[in-house]
Amino acid sequence: MSGNTFGKLFTVTSFGESHGGAIGCVVDGCPPGLPLTAADLQPDLDRRKPGTSRFTTQRREADEVEILSGVFEGLTTGTPIGLLIRNSDQRSGDYSKIARQFRPAHADYTYQQKYGARDYRGGGRSSARETAMRVAAGGIAKKWLAERYGVRIRGYLSQLGPLAAQSHDWSLVETNPFFCGDRNLIPQLEEFMIQLTKRGDSAGARINVIAEGLPAGWGEPIFDRLDADIAHAMMGINAVKAVEIGAGFASVEQMGSEHRDALTPEGFTSNNAGGVLGGISSGQPVVVSMALKPTSSIRIPGDSIDVTGEAVEVVTTGRHDPCVGIRATPIAEAMLALVLIDHALRHRAQNADVISETPSIPGVIDL
Amino acid sequence: MSGNTFGKLFTVTSFGESHGGAIGCVVDGCPPGLPLTAADLQPDLDRRKPGTSRFTTQRREADEVEILSGVFEGLTTGTPIGLLIRNSDQRSGDYSKIARQFRPAHADYTYQQKYGARDYRGGGRSSARETAMRVAAGGIAKKWLAERYGVRIRGYLSQLGPLAAQSHDWSLVETNPFFCGDRNLIPQLEEFMIQLTKRGDSAGARINVIAEGLPAGWGEPIFDRLDADIAHAMMGINAVKAVEIGAGFASVEQMGSEHRDALTPEGFTSNNAGGVLGGISSGQPVVVSMALKPTSSIRIPGDSIDVTGEAVEVVTTGRHDPCVGIRATPIAEAMLALVLIDHALRHRAQNADVISETPSIPGVIDL
Amino acid sequence: MSGNTFGKLFTVTSFGESHGGAIGCVVDGCPPGLPLTAADLQPDLDRRKPGTSRFTTQRREADEVEILSGVFEGLTTGTPIGLLIRNSDQRSGDYSKIARQFRPAHADYTYQQKYGARDYRGGGRSSARETAMRVAAGGIAKKWLAERYGVRIRGYLSQLGPLAAQSHDWSLVETNPFFCGDRNLIPQLEEFMIQLTKRGDSAGARINVIAEGLPAGWGEPIFDRLDADIAHAMMGINAVKAVEIGAGFASVEQMGSEHRDALTPEGFTSNNAGGVLGGISSGQPVVVSMALKPTSSIRIPGDSIDVTGEAVEVVTTGRHDPCVGIRATPIAEAMLALVLIDHALRHRAQNADVISETPSIPGVIDL
Amino acid sequence: MSGNTFGKLFTVTSFGESHGGAIGCVVDGCPPGLPLTAADLQPDLDRRKPGTSRFTTQRREADEVEILSGVFEGLTTGTPIGLLIRNSDQRSGDYSKIARQFRPAHADYTYQQKYGARDYRGGGRSSARETAMRVAAGGIAKKWLAERYGVRIRGYLSQLGPLAAQSHDWSLVETNPFFCGDRNLIPQLEEFMIQLTKRGDSAGARINVIAEGLPAGWGEPIFDRLDADIAHAMMGINAVKAVEIGAGFASVEQMGSEHRDALTPEGFTSNNAGGVLGGISSGQPVVVSMALKPTSSIRIPGDSIDVTGEAVEVVTTGRHDPCVGIRATPIAEAMLALVLIDHALRHRAQNADVISETPSIPGVIDL
Fold first, then answer.
1. Disulfide: which of A151, B226, C282, D141 matches A145 by Cβ 3.0-4.6 Å?
2. What domains are there in chain A, each with its CATH number?
């Protein structure tokens, strides 16, 4: 109830601070029989890991995950899977000053207000370091969705500050540090980031994630619609300020005759719905887009107050990402996987006896 | 788990179809001692009610709510509050045709896929008629938040199709059927709606809702952030396709030095965060914006398939809103109230002993 | 979270006071396609109903349940099922005196302490009248379990005050007002009850419920074991003070060599476990026994205090059951059904892909 | 939903198998500001630990708990507390045989049926080793309850096999390996256990736990009554087969005039209710008793089947407790603490504004 558990049937309960002994989580509800080793989870952890390019923070966390339970003889057993990553590259000395200051746009002030105290080292619990566990847990979900249903989940960066992608080629996404699929944009992104870092400022980003291959029928109408749970998951990622499904805000200016996706015997002909109708998956690709605000930790001085309410000038001097959106793609993919597996299990709990009794039609394969 | 309950400590469990005997809900967890009568809930129900202007559906539902339990001698007792609205103006004959067809952009196809069957009369459970119960339940939350914490929740329409408000005056919002605060826009909206209805088409809309007066400290970090739960609540409203908090998608193009809201001894100086930092309320107004897609039921014929997979042409002939966004303002307000009361209770469960031990600073009062 | 919802996947959310407008509940998570009418639920409601013999309270409630939603063309649709029973035979005048007194062994004092106020008419929310909704909801669960899995749930009274059954014949249970299966005991029970009523006192009882036919595999180990959830369900019935599974307290004096139920190729040879091993059903009959305390409302004067803390003498003069245990059998059956259906759904959510891959062995058919 | 999380506001999510890398849990919802170190949790872990007397299993687990998160500068921060105990004294070789056999009265058969596979080493997830984490988590709850409300939770063994305590002196309980408070019984218990071990058999036990000092008002009526949640907690402990609150099964033979606890201006005069009325604490001591079945692992050969359904003779040769009840006292105390802290938080979430507005009366201090 304190908000550290995600999901209802496939649950992830997370713990740990950026500068404590470890971060970890418990994944409960994973179906038995899934082949699983730590090596399955490491690739996405490495994609999220800091320090892999000059465009992210130069902190170096090994981020090697240990599976403590729930796997026996290489297969999940249906019992909870404990995951642990020991913290290594901490420089607590960097953070001593902020013990008494509230950094603007950070959670310092609100944690202090909520709990009457806070672990101020490196953001403590509010640090994005915690998202490594989401990526690890999401890796289990991704694997099960792929093996059991053939679901494929991919994401990419579609805009960084003012630079928006004009084209998209999936084959490029994993070849550059930005997860960008527009060949022409990549050099511009590099130059933009170099200038941004020089100025000591930071930039926002837009990330898209897409799930393909899921069947129709996932999602619980009324409050726990598939799109509502996706919005919950994405807005729960550090720095996310906005979420769209399908046409999103563009649907404000669409006419009904334009927005509605026609069904034909050959399948849907468009995907303004983003794969969700009435809160339930339609079998079309689920298409999600989100905005991440610029990193709050920047070298440019800013006005704030200290714990006594006095005015102070804050300068953040640690090693920070100039654009948190860059490393957000694997996190958003993981959260989408966690939503989908949860709804896959919820759906079959209630509807196991009627699943597949009705015909399914193809979705629009690409956007 | 089937998604018909909203909230964790202040819960709303909803039931009912548009053409069944009644719609209703159970509100559980309401603190005792709140003065409450059906008359407290009726004004918001009337604001949502169809048929109050020429610009909404001409169905006429009395929408008179009955309080069945949980109130004794005019005060809530802490036991569950049963709410009931009998359905009255149903014309089931209107819907017989759609029993075998899947209306495009409707939930017909996905309900059929999920459950193997569906109540096709008037959309059944997927009808927006169910939102009347959210408004009723939200009315209880609104009243408690106002009386206990002085929280004020208001909403308005900021765009309808291509027509976006250029100014905002709260005093106008309740004086026109669109909940619009831009005096110059109102006649344009009327004309636009008349033309839209003539063409038999529908339009999307953008709605904003704002909560003022809440203290810092509400929201559970990590997964159940206040903004994540708001996104869940809003995306769970029929037809909503996108949600923003504070600067929302505009934060993609902001620099960190521009986005961050300075704290000063006199209070915050801007509100790009939309009242939430690290998932916890900052004491600033909570600012939410959302997109509603155009109504799916339109008179213009569209391509679809029937339950056997054969191609059909669908024309929707019932009485439908040409813009569902128009009646969405009280629904969005209700959902925001439900999120806030839930987090108010969650916060004090864990933190009752430390609340108010730290100083609070003023927020930016208006947008 | 305020405790008015039972179950996790098949949930019952209950509302209503004994002297309010109605009692009701929402059943969420019922699989679609189950044939269901109010007539399916009425028999168990009639078995629980007061006033059907001289040995129960002479209040006369019609207890006719109305299905408000979730059923279409005679079949459940998978959407929430709203159930309602209007209150009819209330004599609020009977209860005016207790507004200021705390009746011993009642919930008057604790409700007042918890909520600062209470609906004192007929026990308000703490009245056993609320259990009618459990019986109605349990009727849906019973029907689904029977149709889908062939599960049969039955209960009987095995002791009333000092009178314990020495034999058990299922065919007798529904032929006497006590739900007793011991032919010789029935006339003794009648005489005992007549004397008890004359004295104005009340008596306790022991009730047994048994579920047969369920498969192995239901129950979630560690905290939500099948037996733990059964204990929760039974101890949550008004007046229940103790719960046993299988050998129960007798297992204290058993040796391990005596308690353990041997497995043979022909099946289990005994059932000390009561059908549950490690929190998971073994396929043997689930055997539950419980104690119900004597009715608290009796005509014999008792010492108590009033709301100001002053000593008072309390005499309860309304129409009350001299033994609440008599009407408890259908309630206990309903609760067992609610636990089982919930675990049936939980089991298949996680384990749908491995169910039935291993051989099952027969259980001991009778106790 | 897979049953590895206990509690709703103060939650414990457990993971780990007896022969995996570690066992651990996440405690979420702990109020901030509680002084906490691993040393606070160690005493109860040591009380539960195997190998501390000749009457328990001779396995030697250090059972040293590590606090991984949620504590900063010696105080809880309100964020989740990760707890970890590495497994050390495992002899996996002992268990190779049971890979293909189902030990009678164990969870082998049911885990296999449920999940299609199982970690057979030392019982895997079904091993009582997991209860070490309950004791650790319960230690946090105990400490908070004591510091915040002055609640004291204690337990003792009241019967072992046929040997029942005839007197009770709290000061003796921690001075003998049985947690027994009857001076005369202790030598008999020693002799009984020696004979039992010689025979290779095992015995059941009865454990009582009592909480004193809690206020009236804890517990959520209807389904999540305080006593119902206690029953759930206790029946969820390995080997527990029965639970009583207050008079328990004795209430079957009590008259209403005898069972009801009188309220007087000086306080309650008896405690048949066991501290709970209508599911809500009355301020009297909460009194719980439970039966633990004899250990299933015994050296006496028993009939069973193997994974192919063939008859086999099973002899359990590992190091096992001849009476699991002996080490159960700290586990039962921990579970009671977990129930109480959860309801303390639930109560104040809803009722923070009315708490303490009504007078409280003293309870019966001892049984």
1. A151
2. 93-351 (3.60.150.10)
